[in-house]
């Protein structure tokens, strides 16, 4: 069995009330599952935001004027950049998860809310590792990897309900 990360630093911040949102422990578990066998040391941050902040970030960074479920910001630091105090390399990046969008999608797709958060955390973490879904072949490979990771966590196939990519 392949081991997970030996050093995993996941900072989780909540920019909205925490009621009904997953715990930081859950996010760390999901990130660890996504990284298992892929990377041994990592620092990353997850920020849970409201629709206003999610929309502003999506508009600024992607040119899309709506809140989306998860945004991934890969770390682009090199050895010449001084790291903030307390941050160790490698800095994988940041995930921004828009809680109202995740809740709405879970309701619309008849998914368990916690399972949807797990899926989007795994999905976003894979983006930070360089996975993408720009074409059908990449999408199929990424979705299959997500299914395998989520199955290890005891979570059903997130694509089975709607068959969407």
TrEMBL record:
Q: Does the keyword Amino-acid biosynthesis apply?
A: no
Gene Ontology BP terms? rRNA processing
| Entries under Pfam families matching the protein | YbeY
> Which keywords describe this protein according to UniProt?
Cytoplasm, Endonuclease, Hydrolase, Metal-binding, Nuclease, Ribosome biogenesis, rRNA processing, Zinc
- Enumerate the residues binding Zn(2+): 123, 127, 133
Looking up PROSITE patterns in the UniProt record yields: UPF0054 (PS01306)
Recorded name of the encoding gene: ybeY
The family database entries (HAMAP family) matched by this protein are listed as: Endoribonucl_YbeY
Q: Know the name of this protein?
A: Endoribonuclease YbeY
The entry's free-text remark on the cofactor is:
Binds 1 zinc ion.
Query: Single GO cellular component annotation?
Result: cytoplasm
> Where is it mainly found?
cytoplasm
Q: Which cofactor does it need?
A: Zn(2+)
């Amino acid at each position: 069995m392949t081991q997970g990360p030996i050093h995993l630093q996941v900072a989780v911040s909540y920019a909205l009330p925490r009621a009904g949102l997953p715990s930081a422990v859950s996010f760390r578990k999901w990130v660890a599952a996504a990284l298992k066998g892929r990377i041994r040391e990592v620092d990353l941050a997850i920020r849970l935001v409201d629709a206003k902040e999610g929309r502003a970030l999506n508009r600024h960074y992607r040119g899309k004027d709506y809140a989306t479920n998860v945004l991934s910001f890969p770390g682009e630091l090199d050895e010449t950049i001084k790291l903030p105090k307390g941050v160790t390399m490698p800095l994988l990046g940041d995930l921004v998860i828009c809680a109202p969008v995740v809740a709405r999608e879970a309701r619309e797709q008849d998914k368990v809310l916690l399972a949807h958060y797990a899926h989007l955390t795994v999905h976003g973490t894979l983006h930070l590792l360089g996975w993408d879904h720009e074409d059908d072949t990449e999408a199929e490979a990424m979705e299959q990897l997500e299914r395998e990771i989520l199955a290890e966590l005891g979570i059903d196939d997130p694509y089975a309900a709607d068959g969407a990519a």
